[in-house]
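[stage:ingest] chain + small molecule (PRP)
[stage:ingest] validated
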Amino acid sequence: MRKVVVSAHPLVKHKLTLLRDINTPPKQFRELIREITVLLAYEATLDLETSPVDVATPLTTARGAKLTEPIGLIPILRAGIGMVEGFWEMIPSAEVWHIGLFRDEETLRPVAYYNRLPVHPTVSVCLILDPMLATGGSAVKTVNILKEWGAHRIKFMGLIGAPEGVERLHSAHPDVDIHLAALDDHLNEKGYIVPGLGDAGDRQFGTG
Ligand code: PRP
Ligand code: URA
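[stage:predict] done
[stage:export] tokens:
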């Protein structure tokens, strides 16, 4: 059984409030997604493994640490793209493997349209990036894809989750940690998170 972490960081709460605002334009929306992702990345990577390494300072030798696990970022297209830059600021060496899914508007089920994962896993830790965990269908499908690929350590990083989506992802994949900036109230009849922020893809790309 893994964990569900909702950030309590005041900066996350402040920036998320701006992100939700209907008057926030796409440029600022994209900047906020990047900034919040930096803060969430800090929390989601607390358990990464390191190995000891010596470094020469101007005075002497100091014992330091270096990351040992290859990290993979898995942004779910489209909206997950906006979270990549923030994560790369923390871990520039992270590989990025895109997964393309959209929700069928009638059934709310995820439809897969893009996957260029190589035959064998090239990373030890996979971080799925998607701002919205609504019904959880897209997240569960992405974890299924990654597990079929051979990934073992998988985390989900989102900005806003609905209780329904958290429950569904957690039930289907209890081994996957979930990191969120906020856990909202419920889904409406169209599968949108309430209060939410609207359509995360449209608001980033100005397509709403
Ligand atoms: C949004 C969001 C998630 C999905 C969440 O994508 O970015 O991928 O919905 O919903 P779920 O938890 O109910 O599956 P959308 O289908 O709107 O595609 P887009 O990012 O291309 O706009
Ligand atoms: N996808 C979004 O972009 N927003 C929601 O509220 C739900 C799914």
